[in-house]
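User: Could you write out the 3D structure of this protein bound to MGD? I've included everything you need below.
Assistant: Certainly. Input first, then the structure.
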Amino acid sequence: MATEPPTSDPAQDAPEVTGPRHAAAGLPAVQRSLRMAHRQMGVRRTARTLFRVNQKEGFDCPGCAWPEADKRHRAEFCENGVKAIAEEATERRVTPAFFAEHGVADLAGRSGYWLGQQGRITHPMYLADGATHYEPVSWERAFDIIAGELQGLASPDEAVFYTSGRTSNEAAFLYQLFAREFGTNNLPDCSNMCHESSGSALGETIGVGKGSVLLEDIHQADLIIVAGQNPGTNHPRMLSALEKAKQSGARIITVNPLPEAGLERFRNPQTPRGLAGPGTALTDLFLQIRLGGDQALFRALNRLVIETEGAVDETFVREHTHGYEQFATAARTADRDETLRATGLDPADIDRALEMVLGSQRIIVCWAMGLTQHKHAVPTIKEIVNFLLLRGNIGRPGAGVCPVRGHSNVQGDRTMGIFERPAPALLDAIEREFGFAPPREHGLDVVRSIRALRDGNAKVFVAMGGNFVSATPDTDVTEAAMRRARLTVHVSTKLNRSHVVTGARALILPTLGRSDRDIQHSGPQFVTVEDSMGMVHASRGRLEPASDQLLSEPAIVCRLARRTLGERSSTPWEEFEKDYRRIRERISRVIPGFDDFESRVSRPGGFALAHAPRDERRFPTATGKANFTAAPVEYPRVPEGRLLLQTMRSHDQYNTTIYGLDDHYRGIKGGRRVVLVNPDDARTLGLADGDRTDIVSEWTDGTERRAPGFRVVHYPTARGCAAAYYPETNVLVPLDHVADTSNTPVSKSLVVRLESTAP
Ligand SMILES: Nc1nc2c(c(=O)[nH]1)N[C@H]1C(S)=C(S)[C@@H](COP(=O)(O)OP(=O)(O)OC[C@H]3O[C@@H](n4cnc5c(=O)[nH]c(N)nc54)[C@H](O)[C@@H]3O)O[C@H]1N2
Ligand SMILES: Nc1nc2c(c(=O)[nH]1)N[C@H]1C(S)=C(S)[C@@H](COP(=O)(O)OP(=O)(O)OC[C@H]3O[C@@H](n4cnc5c(=O)[nH]c(N)nc54)[C@H](O)[C@@H]3O)O[C@H]1N2
Ligand SMILES: [Mo]
């Protein structure tokens, strides 16, 4: 039976439930975030910091990847961005004295929330083989330890280099360069658990694995479909863009099993009407879909479009697409009863959606984890591409695909070559520029890395940011896998569970965050990032770092590379560390689209990367056209007496970082161990609101996994569906249950039963 990682403290978990809200943001949101900022940073530091967020001369918000508008407000941040910044710019410190007081066993018994609340890590720390406590270590010695372990491996492929999505372009470029010069493509990243399905689907169908819209397109669309995304919590600045679109006449369809407050109504704190008045109603049509029903929904809409005289943009289809006939044949067989079973929707809702689609000239579909973390995520997103292609909604203003990315630079990290399956063209460019032969075999993604660690095939694990053991599936398996490593290394800003579930030896390397000043030999440095819409811009931190022992991420990679590769490498690591312009020079020669990088990124606001489908309706796919695809429709089947569970974020967390215990818009406070169940399902299952249950996931291979001690909350989610927070429920997700093609863990569709326990 699975045990529970102490992400939230079961003993102290006492959720109070007041029911869902129906509007987001407004003055209370600003007040909530300022209270937290004052607690972490004090009043003066708060004011100094917040007015630099997302300004042209300031730093990029470490919150989400939503782009900044060209015309900036004085306060270009949101409630949850403020929380992300307060977490990073906190004045609390985790010092060597802290580690002397708290041994690893002690820390391993603390909740993730508690660990995060202790503050910024100030010194490099080392956990020796068999030691009970981390001890301070010099940077020199830390790099010696890592280099020693790496050099001792039988093959470079026994090392794994993970990246989380806050890492800057400069650091990411150096990190992949180092891994490849060392000799491996084992570069898993958080994308593997996030938008990998989007990249897979878009790459094959439109030829570019990124979204095809800019912020202006959102403002100009006349229909925006938001499917599987909760922007009120996870991309709050997106609500301003949706509001603006509405004010120009756009309509919004929301597709979600949950009624999310942020999509119902938005009170924009930057306008008088939003601050004190009623705000703007956003959603015109709410399709309360069953988990995993989206492919069936879009297939049904596609059939209806095809069958409507004159609805297909035939010129576009003829000139720019491939595979229409085959797709249309498959779509015509879409079965109405099956659609209703898969989606749980009312036929009238589908008709109303069709009417809105046919009445619109410029359609954008936005999505996030609600679509990407399913077994059939890739075909689902391909069906959305089919949907947009049918009416020519890719490659013109106000229309396109809009996967909304998570981490603030997760898209940029991929652009810089953080990918376990690099394109040959990237490797050729690296070889030309740096004169070594990078490995050509594909490396390990997240799930495969865990298997390799579990099976003893990977022995050294290095993480550039993130919290690998808490973010990944099958917590028990993953933790056991990590403990088999010889050495685990984390480049981190804050303490987390991955620092206490370690290999035989472990290192914590403390680094600068986005808001911190970065001064190197040639003077103050800036780094660059790419947002969800392919805009690249500079980010300059100004705060005094948490201690004089911190090194920047680029500096850490450069020193590690020099120490590990030694004479073998002719890469000028020392020059790179001294002056990040030298890194950007190389990026401009290796990564397509970055010509003249330094001067373009020095312009206020930065520049937009080219995107062939968006800019010129050119589709660089295998067929040279945009591809229709005709995958069979799939949806999760749920046996009698079982529910389908999604694992999602509360309003008060950033992935595995728990800010607090207030999921404000869902009206759940003071605890996180809740399972949201439709009241009708709950009655059928004999579960009263407030009952205690274990959540048990059941898999076709006959295995079960258990997360104990959840409070049942009657909540208006779609019938047959349930919801609980991540990462408490990651124990329930089996390592081997992943999306086809993208290999992303299926965190949004777990078949579960709820087992009542004594009150
Ligand atoms: N404040 C804050 N901001 C964040 C993050 C954070 O943790 N906190 N995380 C960042 C990261 S890395 C990411 S990837 C993004 C995540 O942003 P989201 O994807 O918005 O995050 P989730 O909480 O996973 O929410 C999934 C949403 O999809 C819905 N959903 C679930 N399953 C389905 C389905 O089968 N079909 C449909 N149509 N809907 C479904 C859920 O009800 C929920 O509204 O946010 C980023 N921004
Ligand atoms: N069940 C379930 N599992 C999921 C998901 C889900 O919806 N459900 N979502 C998945 C998704 S979308 C994602 S993206 C992953 C997230 O996986 P990760 O990216 O690995 O996790 P985070 O919680 O974002 O990482 C937080 C840690 O990053 C470090 N950090 C913060 N800022 C910096 C910085 O500037 N530099 C460095 N070096 N370190 C920094 C801090 O030490 C902090 O503790 O989780 C995935 N896991
Ligand atoms: Mo993500």
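The CA atoms of residues 7 and 728 lie 6 Å apart.
User: Perfect, thank you.
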